[in-house]
């Protein structure tokens, strides 16, 4: 049983950072294997808790908060109460949250009183735990342990055993044609499931989902829009990302003030969005590579450009079906093919 956590700890000499980054967690497995511990005897422990630091000195009671532990379910109430922000470290594969307690306000962690000032919490969430669970089948070891029961959020058990055993999503079989791309984009955080245990691969992709995926892939998942123009997204879950996508020139509305976020995203619309990002050179041809894509069509050059790069393919009958709805599995496959293009664009 390996204690693959406490990469940071409670104390003034602790670094401010993850309790267990993905590299720390995996190195623990690799060390045991190097020491010839049988795979069938290795159980790697992961944390269900986080640690909190006060960044600007002691509390009003004179307490230094330097890596104090807190249970997973305590994170969201603090961040919500003090209007904090969530972050995700792609290298460490670990989330953090920052917030400020205003003058005159306070909160309690057990008997510890948090008073005015700036705080950061490094903890675990669904994405970081899933990343750790993927290490078990990768190294073919016995399983996982944890510190400790009751420190987890209850919804964790919805997906834990699936991911531990390499299943990932209930509705994506290992033999499904898009299984590997779906896992790839899920690992990158570009696409999430429709729930903790379902990906809904054949579900049509909406215009809102398409905008969100591209914004995340370009590294703008936490960017705030300078202004909002679409009136039909005021209460929509993806309003921020949609407006950021508009400002980046990735999307347009169906009118000056309407985006139609829940309308399906067609295959030609998706091609246009991708070409808006990459501006691939186009070798113009009078004859379309697809019999159902008109060379005079509004999205022809975008479809042609991405097809010429080798990222867009047609169906078995040779058609492209430009007005057909894109599915979530198709989007995952396309994003996986183009991953290196997005990585270059982010640099």
Structural summary, described in words:
The chain has 347 residues and is of the alpha+beta class. The protein has 2 domains: 2-132, Chitinase A, domain 3, CATH 3.10.50; 179-346, no CATH class. The chain contains 12 helices and 10 strands. It has helices at residues 22-34, 75-81, 126-133, 135-139, 156-164, 179-188, 207-217, 239-247, 267-278, 300-308, 328-337, 339-346; strands at 2-3, 43-47, 49-54, 66-71, 85-89, 94-101, 107-109, 112-114, 117-122, 143-147. The protein has a 5-stranded antiparallel β-sheet with strand order 4-3-9-6-5, with helices on one face. The protein has a 3-stranded parallel β-sheet with strand order 1-2-10. Strands 7-8 form a two-stranded antiparallel sheet. Strand 1 (2-3), helix 1 (22-34) and strand 2 (43-47) form a beta-alpha-beta unit. Helix 3 packs parallel to helix 5 and helix 6 (179-188) packs across helix 11. The radius of gyration is 23 Å and the shape is globular.
Radius of gyration: 23 Å
Domains counted in the coordinates: how many? Answer: 2
Order of helices and strands: EHEEEHEEEEEHHEHHHHHHHH
Multimeric organization: single chain
CA-to-CA gap between the ends?
40 Å
- Helix percent reads 25-40%
% residues in beta strands: 5-15%
Largest sheet data: 5 strands, antiparallel
Q: Note the total helix count.
A: 12
Structural class: alpha+beta
Q: Point out poorly predicted stretches.
A: none
């Amino acid at each position: 049983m390996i204690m693959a956590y406490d990469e940071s700890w409670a104390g003034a000499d602790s670094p401010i950072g993850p309790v267990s980054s993905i590299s720390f967690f995996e190195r623990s497995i690799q060390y045991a294997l190097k020491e010839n511990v049988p795979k069938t005897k290795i159980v790697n422990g992961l944390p269900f808790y986080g640690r909190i630091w006060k960044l600007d000195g002691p509390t009003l009671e004179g307490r230094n908060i330097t890596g104090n532990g807190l249970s997973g379910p305590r994170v969201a109430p603090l961040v919500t109460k003090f209007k904090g922000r969530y972050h995700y470290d792609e290298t460490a594969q670990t989330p953090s949250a920052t917030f400020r307690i205003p003058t005159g306000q306070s909160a309690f962690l057990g008997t510890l009183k948090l008073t005015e000032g700036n705080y950061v919490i490094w903890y675990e969430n669904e994405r970081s735990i899933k990343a750790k669970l993927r290490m078990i089948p990768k190294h073919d070891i016995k399983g996982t342990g944890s510190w400790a029961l009751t420190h987890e959020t209850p919804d964790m058990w919805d997906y834990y055993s699936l991911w531990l055993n390499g299943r990932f999503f209930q509705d994506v079989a290992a033999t499904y044609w898009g299984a590997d791309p779906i896992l790839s984009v899920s690992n990158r955080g570009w696409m999430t499931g429709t729930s903790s245990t379902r990906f809904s691969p054949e579900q049509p992709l909406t215009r809102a989902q398409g905008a969100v995926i591209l914004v995340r892939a370009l590294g703008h998942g936490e960017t705030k829009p300078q202004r909002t123009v679409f009136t039909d997204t005021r209460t929509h879950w993806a309003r921020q990302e949609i407006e950021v996508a508009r400002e980046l020139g990735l999307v347009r509305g169906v009118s000056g003030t309407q985006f139609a976020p829940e309308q399906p995203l067609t295959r030609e619309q998706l091609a246009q969005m991708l070409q808006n990002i990459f501006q691939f050179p186009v070798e113009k041809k009078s004859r379309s590579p697809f019999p159902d894509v008109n060379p005079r069509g509004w999205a022809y050059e975008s479809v042609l450009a991405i097809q010429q790069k080798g990222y867009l393919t047609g169906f078995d009958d040779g058609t492209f079906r430009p007005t057909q709805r894109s599915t979530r599995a198709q989007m995952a496959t396309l994003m996986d093919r183009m991953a290196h293009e997005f990585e270059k664009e982010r640099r």
